[in-house]
Amino acid sequence: MSAYIVKRFLLMILTLVGMSIIIFVLLRLMPGNIADIMFDSAGFVDPEEKANIERELGLDQPIPVQYYEWIRGLIVWDLGFSYVSEMPVVDELQPRIPITAKLAALSLFFSVLFGLPLGVISAVRQNSAMDYILRCISLSGLSLPSFWLALLILMAFVQYAGTIPIYTDPPENLWDELLLYSIPAAAVGFRSSALIMRLTRSSMLEVMRQDYIRTARSKGATDNSVNYHHALKNAVLPVTTIIGIEAAFLIGGLIITETVFNIPGVAHFLVEAILMRDYPIVQNLVMLIALVTVLINFLVDMLYAVLDPRIKYAD
Amino acid sequence: MGYLTRAAALGLGVAMLAGYAGTALAQKDGGVLKFYHRGTPPSGSIHEEATNSTVSPYMGVFNNLVMYKQDVAKNSLDTIVPDLAESWSWNGDGTELTFKLREGVQWHDGKPFTSADVKCTWELVLGKSKAKLRKNPRKAWYKNLEEITTNGDHEATFHLKRRQPAFIALLASGYSPVYPCHVPPKKMRTNPIGTGPFKFVSLKQNEHVKFTKNDNYWKEGKPHLDGHEWTIIKSRATRVLAFIAGEFDMTFNVDVTVPLLKDVRSQAPHAVCELVTTNVSYNLIVNQDNPPFDNADIRKAMVFAIDRQAFIDILADGEAVAGGAMMPPPSGVWGMPPEVLEKVAGYGPDIEANRAEGRKIMEGLGYGPDKPLEVKVSTRNIAVYRDAAVILIDHLKHIHIAAELDTVETSNWHAKVARKDYMVGLNLTGSGVDDPDSNFYENYSCGSQRNYTGYCKEEMEALFEKQSMMTDQEERRKLVWEIDKKLQEDAARPMIMHSKGANCWQPYVKGFVTHVNSLYNNWRLEDVWLDK
Fold first, then answer.
1. Residue B176: which of B127, B138, B126 has the closest Cα?
2. What is the DSSP letter of A225?
3. Rounded Cα distance, B206 and B92, in Å
4. How many pairs of residues across A and B have Cβ atoms under 8 Å apart?
5. CB–CB of B219/B86 below 8 Å?
6. Considering only alpha carbons, which residue of chain A is nearest residue B48?
7. Interface residue A13 vs chain B (CB under 8 A)
8. Which of A86-95, A215-224, B13-22, B208-217 holds the top average pLDDT?
9. CB-based contact, A143 to chain B, within 8 Å
């Protein structure tokens, strides 16, 4: 087990190094750089002034030198300065990360809270009216674009409540924060919960046809015991994988949700930074996301062993 | 009788004064004016930007030497009033403009304002100072400025290479604030210091820009507001909904489009909305450096293809206006009136006849229905540009030009244009000042960085200079029309239409006047107050 963990850890490092090279090169392959974009707001491009800006930002250096400078900075926790705001990257990212983390956690919480039990209900009441209703709802969750759903929610609030649940000022207490984030979290979590529900349903249906479930029933176990003790415990394994993947994919959904609900998180900030070719922000943020993703995957792998005693990681 | 007349005049005067005093007394101090903003301002340094994303929020941080009267909607030479300058005078031959400066004015950091700051500011813009601006978009405005000299701490003189009566119009723009000598350009971008009614507090990317009242403002009793805050909301749907829900006191500068205005008026009938011309034009930029558009005849044929009314109806619900390079009347001061405009080639009311003329030119060059000229129409990949480009492509078909849409990521647009990496572009151009000196030198003069097409003619340069030197404004106007006509017929940058946009505010916002011939000059906000 310990050898497996070390191996996985080394693989994680390798993945992150590969990721750093890919993001660094891809960013520089994109047409235009920050100097071009800065001139966009001035309505012209002056080659001499552009060259000065590139020199000032170190963009005139060869790519390997720029990469080396970035990695050297990462190692000593000097993430550089945002090209756009001219503020330290750490200062730009620090207040935004908790916002997105809270929103993502709440979305994931909603997804699991609704997706898992409704999936079980749908499976145990297969082909009932309840099953059909839940399947319809889940299908709509998968097919509704989240930006459209978010806009519908906002319009409904303005129309019927005369208010709009968007972020304009930082919330003053935990309750305000929960209120502020729960609507966007529900909007983004709707899709994930639909996915989890459908996956739980199909996984449960598969498990419920297994011999050991029949054995449990023949031994006189109650429906609840069969469904939740014997079936769900085994059906939840693929769902766990999906929850792990969804956690990483949530960032994509959050970009739209943060934009529509005007939440100043990192997801929306990342897109803005990409559009502005703000390399220091994008590079460091993508590395952070990559780190979180590989860590989640690692944790999911570890969780397998806990959830399914049959899984053993050989040394 | 004379006595009665005098008494009546006196009575009227007293009544007016009472009315004025009543208005003045009614103004309430306090409160923070809340705006939404469409995106993070690129910086706080007005001299380095050419966007209302910067000018609108930051204009209140600064003062100019002179400015356009904030409560008069139409900017002209007659509406220029003193600001940091108490008065100004021209020398005999109109080449020296001397300003007497106010005494006792302080920068927000407590340092005194002097004539050295005036000299510094324009030397920075001319590129003559040690400190450098990262970007300098209005260099072309000051082509005629030789140097600035000072006489003591409270007098500064602008020395011009030749007479230019409208030079003062450029100084009155929101784009012409006075900067402090002691603050480097980098700090002006991130933490600007001015002498204006509001101090910069903070800018957080994608969140807000905040300003607070300058308690030591040199204009007594102003500003009325405790501050103003701009919440950045990228999604237009969200921000307009937020205004409708009463979350904001005011919309961003002409952010409400004609179709959206209908929604605002129906869902927030209490809101005050003004739909105004913005001095932003839709136009074509044609790459004259490369074939086939190095051929002037093809450029001329394109002008005949445009049905301007179709653009106006489709894009602006009939509210926008057709015009030449200069913004047309009644809002514009210098544009061609309809009776002159319709005589310009391609502007005639019979669209079919115009297009037949265009086809004739193209057929003469060997193009036809079976052999169309294939081109790409490039534009920014945002709706306001893309929609117009699609209509243009349809119109070009009528003169045997088969065009394909080439959308460009918006932030790369000017870089692409500067590289001349396009054939035909659909562009929007905003004018900071409704004056030919600003427009012609910026967009059509040889060597100007914003003259995207590289249009350059000696004959036109001479005309630009001639109009610029004229003191009789009526005579100048006639010459400007003549120049504008030539620019359109040369297809220097064929104009499609001059757009309109709306500002909306809650009824308790008082003292704000939307200017009708520039977006950039009415954001000092020192007269605005909240009737709450």
1. B138
2. I
3. 52
4. 138
5. no
6. A42
7. no
8. B208-217
9. no
For residues A305 and B223, the model is more confident at B223
A132-146, A253-267, B241-255, range with greatest mean pLDDT: B241-255
Whether the predicted interface score ipTM is above 0.85: no
Least CB–CB distance from A269: residue in B42, B53, B206: B206
Q: Would you say residue B3 has pLDDT above 50?
A: no
What would the two tokens of residue B14 be?
């007293």
Q: The tokens 């209005």 sit on which residue?
A: B138
Using a CB-CB cut-off of 8 Å, the residues of chain A touching B246 are: 162-163
Q: Is residue A191 within 8 Å of A253, Cβ to Cβ?
A: yes
Backbone phi, psi, residue B210, to 5°:
-125, 145
Q: How many alpha carbons fall within 13 Å on the CB side of residue B39? A: 17
Are the CB atoms for B451 and B427 separated by under 8 Å? no
Q: Is the peptide bond preceding residue B292 cis, with omega within 30 degrees of 0? A: yes
Q: Is B1's pLDDT higher than 70? A: no
B136 vs A contacts (CB less than 8 Å):
42, 46, 49
Alpha-carbon distance of B477 to B131, in angstroms, equals 39
Contact list in B for residue A32 (CB cut-off 8 A) is: 409, 411-412, 415
Q: Which of A162, A164, A264 sits opposite B242 (nearest CB)?
A: A164
Closest partner CB to B411 (pick from A151, A164, A276): A276
Chain A residues in contact with B450 (beta carbon < 8 A): 43-44
Residue-wise pLDDT for A66-81, tens only, equals 999 999 999 898 999 9
Amino acid at B59: M
**Could A84 and B49 be called an inter-chain contact, meaning their C-beta atoms sit closer than 8 Å?**
no
Q: What is the rounded average pLDDT of the residues B197-225?
A: 96
Interface subset of B 49-68, CB within 8 angstroms of A = 49-51, 53-54
Q: Which pLDDT does position A304 carry in this prediction?
A: 77
Query: At a CB cut-off of 8 Å and minimum separation 6, what does B330 contact?
Result: none
Nearest CA distance, A262 vs chain B (angstrom): 6
**B326, B332 Cβ separation under 8 angstroms:** yes
Q: Do B49 and A49 touch (CB under 8 A)?
A: no
pLDDT bracket for residue B196 (50, 70, 90):
very high
Q: Which amino acid is at A14?
A: L
Estimate the crossing angle of helix B308-316 against helix B383-397, to 10 degrees.
150
* Shortest Cα–Cα distance, B132 to chain A (Å): 10
- Decide if B512 contacts B60 (C-beta within 8 A): no
What does the pLDDT read at residue B25?
A: 52
- Looking at the DSSP bridge assignments, the partners of residue B403 are B375
DSSP-derived 3-state class of residue B223: coil
Cα-Cα end-to-end distance for chain B: 47
d(CA B49, CA A44): 10
Closest CA to B199 of B319, B386, B44: B44
Nearest to A43 among B53, B137, B244 (CB): B137
Q: Which residues contact B237 (CB under 8 A, 6 or more apart)?
A: A151, A154, A260
Instruction: Kindly state the average pLDDT of the residues B241-247.
Output: 96
Distances (CA, A) of A28 to A66, A173, A287: 11, 42, 16
Is residue B20 very low, low, confident or very high in pLDDT (cuts 50, 70, 90)? Answer: very low
pTM of the predicted model over 0.90: no
* Chain B neighbors of A85, CB-CB under 8 A: 190, 203, 205
Neighbours of A172 (CB within 10 A): 8
Contact between A259 and B234 using a beta-carbon 8 Å cutoff? yes
Block residue for tokens 């030919």: B436
Q: Which residues contact A73 (CB under 8 A, 6 or more apart)?
A: A79, A80
Given CA atoms B35, B37, B43, B49 in this order, what sign does their dihedral have?
A: negative
